[in-house]
Amino acid sequence: MDYRFLIARRYLVSPRRITLISTITAISMAGVGLGVAALLVVLSVMNGFFDFVRDMLVSFDPHVRIVSAEERGLRQADSLMAVALAVPHVEHASPYVEGKALLVHEGLAEVNKVVIVRGVDPATLTGVSRVVERTELGAFDLARRDGRPGIVVGQRLARRLGLSAGGNGLPASTVGLLSAPAIERLFMQVFGGPQIPRFTVRGLYELEPVYDENHVFIDLDEARRLFRMEDRVSGIELRLDDLEQADRVKRALQ
Description:
The structure is a single chain. This protein is of the alpha+beta class. About 40% of the residues lie in helices and about 25% in strands. The chain has nine helices and eleven strands. The strands form two sheets. A six-stranded mixed beta barrel has the order 2-3-10-5-9-8, surrounded by four helices. Strands 6-7 form a two-stranded antiparallel ribbon. The radius of gyration is 28 Å and the shape is elongated. About 30% of the residues are buried.
């Protein structure tokens, strides 16, 4: 017989039937059982919430991000990507340029919003972000066509500003992007303001509300021109085969 069963029977079952002791024992057992059940429920909910938040964040953000200590960005992005891909557990790498700009609806000049512009390389973005596969209306097309580059925006932002990716008899919307230096030049120059870069809305994505309302995507080279980054990038995003290895990869790259 198992020793644990013997100990439990010794303290839970009295050789003599004493009503008070039996009642106290039953109440104690019920209390312990209820407490353990409540603890299991709380831990399960917390674990599920943690998994939900983690999946929500990594659906947009990478596992590891390489950035420059200086605001001017990183040079030689291709060489840095090759070094990063040689580190164990690193599966994908993609450069990006990021900055804030004023998005202006060409058809409605009074409709505008400050957004976070991310210049990306579509050829490598798929490996580090789910935004390409979550582009549900139109396509994730950032290429320059008919002299005008493409832009992909969130569905919530599109509804707020009245933007369309075309289709169903509706024309694709055209928007302009003004970076902070361009806005400064606009107010400083009396005659002939800066040329506003114009983009055609090619796709609408849907991830999470906090991202959909604030992030737009354009081609990497277009973002370099918009923010005057020359051949630099803001950083490099990495996707790993195991998220738990992020700290190890970070130490290997330092």
